[in-house]
Specification:
single chain; 307 residues; alpha+beta; Immunoglobulin-like; Alpha-Beta Plaits; 3 domains; 6-stranded mixed β-sheet; 5-stranded antiparallel β-sheet; globular
Length: 307
């Protein structure tokens, strides 16, 4: 946003101050004076109260008109109205409202002594203003390795991709990347965690945001697992077609491998025999159209490139 006088005047003119603001302040002042008399409070209290009202008003206006201001709040407690704490069933949960033209505009991270919080912020793709409600979204949590995939419907942009490198600085995150999706009215991305986690996902409105609180799950131990997956593919339409084809019948996920290519994973098993039985089942359903292999790896390891 430029700082010339015309732009600043427009911002000033566009600010909507509640019609009854002066009445609210007057009533508050009367109450304040009454309280001063009853409790013999110093006169400085009344000035402080007026200042608080003014700060609250400017804060509210700023949140609803300036995305940059809202996104800078990562270092203060989460603002907005809590819509719900997501309840996961079989690793899946959803929320938000059906809309169109949303931009997953930014992702911030806040580090605390015992946990970290990731905040996904939303704006309107047309005018870049903070939206009141989160677009309809789905969260898919899986382990081995631990991932959380977000599919946001009605979204035309993922400007938050610019923040991916910053999110990788989290002590819990090993990678974050955009997923291929054939629907041009949705965006999808995956967060990969470098340790077992306990998580809590909350949806907020006014302004719209998804908040993920992360703590380490110290009870989960490392082990060897056997993954049933496709060969590695470059990021592109073919990858999206494979996932879309499998997604109709299987609860699959797409993972980036150690060389930057991608595979579609159809399941993770505790024994090699279970994994091989799954491949036989898939061969019956898909024939030679798709080739699956068994990959042995640690439960926190990302896949290796297999051509």
């Amino acid at each position: 946003m430029s700082n010339n006088l015309d732009d600043l005047k427009k911002i000033y003119d566009d600010i909507q101050v509640p019609e009854n603001l002066s009445e609210f302040v007057d009533i508050s002042l009367v109450k304040g004076r009454s309280r001063m008399k009853k409790e013999n409070i110093k006169k400085g209290w009344i000035k402080g109260f007026v200042a608080s009202v003014a700060v609250f008003t400017v804060f509210t206006i700023s949140i609803n008109t300036m995305p940059a201001f809202a996104n800078s709040l990562v270092d203060v407690p989460i603002v907005g109205k809590l819509v719900k704490v997501l309840q996961f069933k079989n690793g899946e949960a959803s929320g938000g409202k059906i809309t169109d033209g949303t931009d997953a505009n930014s992702i911030n991270i806040k580090k605390n002594a015992s946990n970290e919080t990731i905040v996904i912020n939303f704006t309107n793709n047309k005018d870049n203003k903070v939206t009141d409600n989160v677009a309809h979204f789905k969260v898919d949590y899986k382990s081995n390795p631990t991932t959380m995939t977000f599919t946001i419907n009605g979204a035309r942009a993922l400007t938050a991709e610019k923040d991916f490198e910053t999110i990788k600085k989290s002590s819990y995150v090993s990678d974050i990347y955009k997923n291929m999706i054939l629907d041009d009215s949705a965006v999808k991305f995956t967060i990969v965690f470098n340790k077992p986690i306990k998580y809590e996902v909350k949806e907020y409105k006014d302004p719209a945001r998804i908040v993920i609180k992360l703590t380490q799950d110290k009870d989960e131990s490392t082990k060897t697992v056997y993954a049933v997956r496709t060969l590695s593919n470059e990021f592109g339409e073919n990858l999206g077609i494979i996932e879309d084809q499998l997604f109709q019948q299987l609860n699959v996920r797409t993972l980036k491998d150690n060389k930057g290519t991608f595979c579609v994973e159809a399941g993770v098993f505790n024994t090699k025999a279970e994994a091989e039985a799954k491949i036989k089942d898939l061969a019956t359903k898909y024939g030679e159209n798709l080739k699956f292999v068994v990959e042995e790896r640690g439960n926190l390891e990302i896949p290796k490139q297999i051509k």
